[in-house]
Amino acid sequence: MNTRGAAPKQDRSRATRQRLLESAVTCLAEHGWSGSTVTVVAEHAGVSRGAAQHHFPTREDLFTAAVEYVAEERSKALRALPAPTADTRAAVATLVALYTGPLFRAALHLWVAASNEPQLGPRVTGLEARIGRETHRMAVDLLGADEAAPGVRETVQGLLDMARGLGLANLLTDDSARRERVVEQWARIVDDVLER
Amino acid sequence: MNTRGAAPKQDRSRATRQRLLESAVTCLAEHGWSGSTVTVVAEHAGVSRGAAQHHFPTREDLFTAAVEYVAEERSKALRALPAPTADTRAAVATLVALYTGPLFRAALHLWVAASNEPQLGPRVTGLEARIGRETHRMAVDLLGADEAAPGVRETVQGLLDMARGLGLANLLTDDSARRERVVEQWARIVDDVLER
Fold this sequence. Notes:
Two copies of one chain form a homodimer. By secondary structure, chain A is mostly helical. In chain A, 76% of the residues lie in helices and 0% in strands. Chain A contains nine helices and no strands. Chain A is elongated. Chains A, B: Residues 14-74 form the HTH tetR-type domain. Chains A, B: GO terms for molecular function: DNA-binding transcription factor activity; transcription cis-regulatory region binding.
């Protein structure tokens, strides 16, 4: 009886937690760090402030968990990418798209906040390093690049730096038309450098 | 008498204003938007809160002026760059350096804050567009690139996007060793594409 009754309650609790984390990310992307308080996030999630505090006693707890959640979701997005493709333009566009959605926007706000918030700093830095390594490995696979060849590693790194810069350029204005032309040209360049 | 007496007073006032703007930029780079209040900035500048409010009655006034100040300083940094050089590696390193100093860091905080602060948004967006155009023109000059040739414009744009991404990567950790290797490889690539 006890275990049967506990399961749905646990499910509900997990669902509430999940909803709070999703809302934390949405609020970060929309209102930035300073606009994302526990109260704002709880309201967005349709959860009482008390229930939110049951899961995350402090703002720090909530956003520490949100950082991990963002990292997990970005990992999932990486693993969901297509297999290596001969279409370099599609591969570069796929990589760049990782940096233009709401997940990157939330990560960017965390990133910038972490540079000034001692309680966020080390955790965000660690997770960014992990995500950076995963993204690089995935980019190498997607492009079918041979990292043993000189310069290939730095080419892929620079390409991801460019993708990050394009994401930043997209923060204040819709930069998609210009971005498309940059992607097209750099796909050509990467084709040449990697001798695809 | 009157005019002679007024001049030093005006000079002092200008110097105070200048000091407040410099401090606003330093505080932004060090503490981010949410940590940069008028009180914090006045204290950093060694100016009384009253004197600060004489120059800038509201936080909005102060940071609106600071945005323009940052734009002006970035413009000055651009105009101070060396003449066109045959050394592509030096040219790329010069461009990338524009995105790794405290001025970019302050601009980044403003940029991210502007995405959520309606009073900052349009002003920062307008100034970023102006600075973006100036930077592009300067990069073309520095590289001696011929924009009439197909793909050259997008090559330079992508290079500046990469520089921006490298600046962002440098926010939480010292990324200089990796950055140097990326700059070296991308200078080689740009050499090939621009047929320098």
